[in-house]
Write the structure tokens for this entry.
Amino acid sequence: MAGLQKAKSEETHRRVLEAAVAAVEAGGQEAVNIRKIAAEAGYSVGSVYKHYEDQDALLTAVNSVTLGRIRQVMAAAVQGTDDPVAQLKALAQAYLAFARHNKNLWVTLFGHRLPEDKPVPEWHIQENVALLGFIAGPLRVLDPALVDDALAARTRTCFAAVHGLVTISLEERFIGLSGHLLEQEMDFLVEKLVT
């Protein structure tokens, strides 16, 4: 009996999260409403609250799904590539492609903020750190003398530079780039960052 209850609970958890991810994909962060998500998943509002404390917890879970998808895209981008500069270029291009094709999920990942009195869960921090590991690996090969703290700083700097170019361009700011030019300049940026 306990096994059946656990399976039902896991199914509820999964279906609610799937409904929330679909809502964000369709309408962005603002589309996540507990009542609507419950209806979409086929459960009561109370059932949603048994699995997710509040809307922030649900959005954090959606962001976890997004991070997992980015991780898959990045892993595929570097598969079979040994050259560290080529790996970093491939990672940057994969990140850009993900953001372009999953804009609402990507915007929510960076747009959702927990209230000041709610710390970011440790597991969510570790998911972010895992993504940075894709960048840290090639950077360590390029500069083996970097100690851990310096490598962490360099990794964050490289990510911030790539993320900034993606953000400005996808927000269609007047200084942003688009199309093939954006991809070309992304490679230029990565080269300048690491050579």
Observations:
- Residues 2-27 form the longest helix (26 residues).
- Residues 67-194 form a domain with the Tetracycline Repressor; domain 2 fold (CATH 1.10.357.10).
